[in-house]
Amino acid sequence: MIVAGFGFRESATRESLTDALARAAGSAPVAVCATAEDKAAALAAALGRPVTGVAEEAIRAQKTRTRSAAALAARGTGSVAEAAALAAAGPGARLLARRVVSGDRRATCALAESAAP
After folding, report:
1. Cβ(93)–Cβ(113) below 8 Å
2. Is the pTM of this model over 0.90?
3. CB-based burial of residue 98 (10 Å sphere; 0-12 exposed, 13-18 middle, 19+ buried)?
4. Hey, what CATH topology would domain 2-113 get?
5. What is the separation of C-alpha 110 from the centre of its chain, rounded to a whole number of angstroms?
6. Which of 2, 4, 57, 117 has the fewest Cβ atoms surrounding its Cβ within 10 A?
């Protein structure tokens, strides 16, 4: 199962989020979208699809490839997108690639694949 994790600013638009998803996923079959719990409703409304909210503790517990100073200060992780994707994909999940940034720099998206078939 492939999970698309998102990090985004409050100023992110639907276009910001769909652009980040398109840049990260291409034609990959994304099964689940995920982000921090407090942003899940906004992401679901913008994308028009269900979103898994990930608890702050689970986000902070993930090892990310990216080290964003802003994400570290705000959420205690190097990348909210990478951490949300990994946490939602479950134990043993792996990142398919580092996070990508939308063209307007308001949203990020990363893909993780679950270890379970």
Report:
1. yes
2. yes
3. middle
4. Nucleotidyltransferase; domain 5 (3.30.420)
5. 5
6. 117
- Sketch the domain layout of the chain as residue ranges: 2-113
pLDDT in tens, the chain (117 residues): 999 999 999 999 999 999 999 999 999 999 999 999 999 999 999 999 999 999 999 999 999 999 999 999 999 999 999 999 999 999 999 999 999 999 999 999 999 999 876
d(CA 36, CA 81) in angstroms, rounded, equals 9
Please enumerate in sequence order all residues whose Cβ is within 8 A of that of 84, keeping only pairs 6 or more positions apart, or say none: 3, 5, 6, 7, 34, 35, 36, 54, 59, 110
CB 100 within 8 A of CB 22: no
Token readout for 34 is 């995920």
Is the distance from CB of 77 to CB of 65 less than 8 angstroms? no
- CA 49/CA 22 separation, integer angstroms: 15
| Dist CA 91 CA 82 (whole Å) | 14
